[in-house]
Design goal:
Layout: H1 2-13, E1 16-21, E2 27-30, H2 32-38, H3 46-51, H4 62-68, E3 72-78, E4 84-94, E5 100-108, H5 110-132, E6 136-140, E7 146-150, H6 152-157, H7 169-173, H8 179-189, E8 194-202, E9 205-217, E10 223-232, H9 234-256, E11 260-265, E12 268-272, H10 274-280, H11 302-313, E13 319-327, E14 333-345, E15 348-357, H12 359-410, H13 417-444, E16 452-454, H14 456-471, E17 475-481, E18 487-490, H15 492-508, E19 514-525, H16 527-530, E20 539-548, H17 555-560, H18 576-586, E21 590-595, E22 601-610, E23 620-621, E24 633-637, H19 641-653, E25 657-661, H20 664-673, E26 680-684, H21 692-702, E27 707-712, H22 717-720, H23 723-726, E28 730-734, H24 739-751, E29 754-755, H25 763-767, E30 770-772, E31 775-777, H26 786-797, H27 801-812, H28 816-827, H29 831-841
Parallel strand pairs: 17-19, 23-29, 24-25, 24-26, 26-27, 27-28
Antiparallel strand pairs: 1-2, 1-5, 3-4, 4-5, 6-7, 6-10, 8-9, 9-10, 11-12, 11-15, 13-14, 14-15, 16-18, 18-22, 19-20, 20-22, 21-22, 30-31
Length: 849
């Protein structure tokens, strides 16, 4: 028993169980450990005792062991013992009686089997892992020879495992190509982790690889080999190169972009392209890098900018395109158009901003706005001018009748002095009304003009003395006249009026003194300049500039200065600058004003520069009679019966045979009946059904020998374009006209000569002469009280229109004829003529008591 007990202890310690079975599968012995598990074995079969089977196992080796008399080994899983795996050694033995039995030694190998299974599973996982990766995994010994190679890369590359196993990199790639591998392996064998890149040609194409090496150490920490992972990074290298190319192109685009592109992080500048430096006035990005973006934004828009930066940096929202005002480093303002998007840059949230300098666009918009205002003013002036011209035309018809009949009575033998005196007053009133209508016609650009090729410098020099008298001693008159100034085609009398009006306005803007500068020059206007101005075309011009150092004007005043009856003076008609505007436009010129409050005012007038040409002067002959007579037949055509009757009466009184017609059609009918008797046709221009121009066209085609005089209440396009003045068979007389004007003009046209004593530019000189029996007599001028004389001189020197009218009213009570002359001189702004009259005739030499 003691031996049996010791055996059980040994078996338990070695985790070995023993049982003995005879050839009929009967259990002869079972150790104590199994009996605790399986119970009593008496009269039990082994297959029923251990496995619960009803018959022997199919793989039972007991008979094999008994027949061969040799030991047989197998594995068996014991389900009753939590699937414990045992290794069964069957050994045939003879018992005491000499019978053969089988002793089974059952060794527990459960842990070993589990370890083997775990190893197999681990190896399978490793195999699957290696097979699923494109990398190559290898091991090296301390001699740098490959001890293993794994990975899909082998199959993809077409290389076999044998190419690597047992070989060094030098044996595989050659000494030169293997240098990088050899050096990297040496570093790793010293215990370092090494990563390096290399390249090699595979199937004729260059491939790039990245290899990582880690040392393998034993329990003592000694390196016994290396494990490495090689990765094909060809695609990555291509992607990196493509990315570098993209970044390079992007860098070139950004660096060469005309618009400012900058990046802000933490609300500071982090990157600026060259256009950004230019925008902010920086010589290099370093002047702005790290500086607050808000410092470069105008205070008036900073709050809005803060809100946009919050949207970008916090809410990660793009911001729309808006206009802002940036500040350059020198403090100057620059308008921009800016938008931005949120980005992540250098590990920080930020914004990529795009800004465009819109200074030029703003200037263009401002110019367009100014141009629109000029067009609006021009259109407004056209409307006003058209209205004024229509009114003046109607008034001129009425004034022609009034003037004509007044002259007829005054030239008759009426002896009633009171009637003659009253009619004289009517005549003076009509002359003042005529002057007013002439201003309206000038405004409407329908005044009859007499353009000549003139040298503007000569007109200005001729006015110098008078201008200095007008502006007084407190104001300096500076003239800068181009010695090579070209010629222009314009009415010289009108240009004198332009200079006079502008100088008077400049004087009134400087009550405490200052300076007036008159300049002339030749200029060539290009398309860029003319495109910014209304009705201005490229080409050669002369420019007249009149500047003052006065109080200047605000924008609202500038917009209205050319409007009729608009004035900022306490006294004045408001027609001065509107008349200037009309004169300039009628002479095909252009005028602009530049002014700022407190900075003075500059007027610039552009007139077309003309090529010098031969000027044909008509011969002049003297005439002794104020109303020369004639015997020819004249046809008068006017839709106004009162005008027809007047002309007929005037011309009949001096011997002409006069026919009349109310329209052009009626006139043609008369001429068709007997055209030989009519030598001259006087026709109105503006008539219903057929205008004077169309009538004259038909007339001259049918009857080219007949001469024509237009009676004009205002000048139409033909007159303005100088078509009439260039036609030797057509002349013009302006309404209202006096009997002398009409009779002289008729005689002048019929005789084909200019009558020197009643030409237009001599009318003012002759106005103060009285007419009696056709002989022009000089009336002796009276002496005026010294006070009136001094007031008249000062008012004339100062060109104070309203004061002159009041003084002349006083003179009228002393001498009506002198007052009449002065009225006419004032209405025509002939201040020099008044001064000459005063100085030459000795007015004011003696004071009345």
């Amino acid at each position: 028993w003691e031996v049996s007990q010791r055996l059980d202890l040994i078996l338990a310690a070695t985790q070995t169980n023993i049982d003995i079975i005879d050839h009929d599968y009967n259990l002869l012995y079972v150790d104590k450990q199994w009996q605790k598990i399986y119970g009593d074995f008496t009269n039990r079969k082994c297959y029923e005792y251990f496995l619960g089977f009803e018959k022997p196992c199919e793989d039972c080796v007991i008979h094999e062991a008994l027949q061969t008399k040799r030991s047989v080994v197998l594995e068996r899983t014991l389900f009753k013992e939590n699937n414990r795996v045992i290794e069964v050694h069957t050994i045939p033995l003879k018992d005491i009686s000499g019978k053969w039995v089988v002793a089974k030694f059952n060794i527990d190998i459960t842990k070993q089997k589990r370890a083997e299974k775990a190893l197999r599973e681990s190896e399978e996982k490793f195999r699957l892992l290696v097979q699923s990766t494109d990398d190559i995994i290898f091991t090296l010994d301390t001699q740098q020879r490959h001890t293993s190679v794994y990975g899909q890369w082998l199959g993809q590359s077409g290389l076999s495992e044998d190419k690597f196993l047992g070989k060094t990199a030098a044996e595989i790639f050659g000494e030169e190509a293997a240098e990088i591998h050899t050096q990297s392996n040496l570093l790793a064998l010293r215990g370092e982790f090494v990563k390096y890149e290399w390249s090699a040609k595979l199937e004729g194409k260059e491939h790039f690889y990245q290899t990582s090496l880690s040392p393998m150490k034993n329990s003592e920490g000694k390196v016994f080999g290396l494990v490495g992972i090689g990765r094909d990074i060809t695609a990555l290298k291509k992607a990196e190169k493509a990315q570098r190319d993209i970044e390079s192109r992007f860098q070139k685009v950004v660096e060469g972009a005309p618009d400012a592109i900058y990046i802000e992080t933490n609300r500071q500048f982090n990157y600026l392209n060259p256009a950004s430096c230019k925008l902010f006035g920086a010589k290099s990005p370093e002047e702005l890098l790290g500086q607050p973006v808000m410092d470069r934004i105008h205070p008036s828009v900073r709050e809005r900018a803060r809100q946009r930066i919050h949207l970008l940096n916090v809410e990660k929202q793009s911001v729309p395109l808006i206009e802002q005002i940036y500040l350059r480093l020198d403090g100057s303002e620059v308008p921009v158009e800016v938008t931005a998007v949120p980005i992540f840059y250098q590990g920080k949230d930020g914004a990529l901003a795009f800004a465009r300098n819109i200074t030029e666009r703003k200037k263009a918009e401002e110019e367009r706005s100014k141009l629109a205002k000029r067009i609006q003013i021009s259109e407004k002036m056209e409307v006003i001018g058209s209205l004024a011209g229509g009114i003046a035309h109607d008034f001129n018809n009425l004034l022609s009748v009034i003037t004509g009949y007044t002259d007829l009575i005054l030239s008759s033998d009426c002896e009633d002095d009171s009637i003659r005196e009253n009619l004289t007053e009517v005549r003076k009133a009509t002359e003042r009304a005529t002057a007013l209508t002439q201003q309206l016609l000038t405004l409407s650009r329908k005044q009859v003009v007499h353009p000549e090729l003139i040298q503007l410098n000569q007109i200005i020099i001729g006015m110098e003395k008078m201008l200095k008298q007008i502006i007084g001693d407190k104001i300096d008159l500076i003239q800068t006249l181009s010695p090579e100034l070209g010629l222009t085609l314009a009415d010289p009398n009108q240009l004198e009026q332009v200079v006079m009006n502008l100088v008077v306005n400049a004087r009134d803007a400087m009550p405490n003194g200052g300076k007036i500068i008159i300049e002339t020059a030749n200029v060539e206007l290009d398309e860029k300049y003319t495109a910014q101005h209304v009705d201005l075309f490229p080409g050669p011009y002369i420019i007249l500039t009149i500047s003052d150092s006065g109080s200047g004007m605000d924008e609202q005043t500038k917009l209205r200065i050319f409007e009729p009856f608009f004035t900022t003076k306490t006294k004045g008609t408001g027609l001065g600058l509107s008349t200037v505007y009309g004169i300039v436009k009628q002479n095909k010129g252009h005028i602009w004003v530049y002014s700022e409050p407190g900075e003075g005012t500059t007027f610039k007038i552009y007139l077309k520069r003309e090529t010098p040409q031969k000027i044909i002067h008509k011969p002049t002959v003297p005439v002794e009679s104020q109303n020369p007579r004639g015997t020819e037949t004249v046809l008068v055509v006017d839709d106004e019966q009162s005008v027809r009757n007047l002309v007929k009466k005037i011309l009949s009184n001096v011997g002409y045979t006069v026919l009349s017609a109310a329209s052009g059609l009626e006139a043609l009918q008369i001429l068709n009946q007997d055209e030989k008797q009519v030598q001259l046709v006087l026709t109105d221009i503006v008539m219903p059904e057929m205008s004077g121009n169309k009538f004259s066209d038909h007339l001259l085609k049918l009857f080219p020998h007949i001469k024509v005089i237009f009676m004009s209440g205002f000048a139409d396009s033909a007159v303005q374009n100088n078509e009439i003045n260039n036609d030797q068979t057509i002349s013009i007389i302006s309404k209202p006209f006096s009997t002398a004007d009409l009779t002289l003009k008729v005689r002048e046209v019929l005789d084909g000569v200019m009558l020197s004593k009643i030409e237009k530019n001599e009318k003012i000189v002759l106005t103060h002469k009285t007419r009696k029996n056709g002989v022009i007599l000089q009336k002796k001028l009276p002496l005026l009280p010294i006070k009136i004389y001094e007031d008249l001189r000062q008012a004339t020197l100062a060109a104070r229109y309203d004061d002159l009218v009041q003084i002349i009213e006083k003179i009228h009570s002393i001498d009506a004829n002198l007052a009449e002359l002065l009225y006419q001189l004032v209405d025509e702004y002939n201040y020099d003529g008044i001064l000459d009259l005063i100085d030459d005739k000795g007015v004011g030499e003696k004071q009345y008591d």
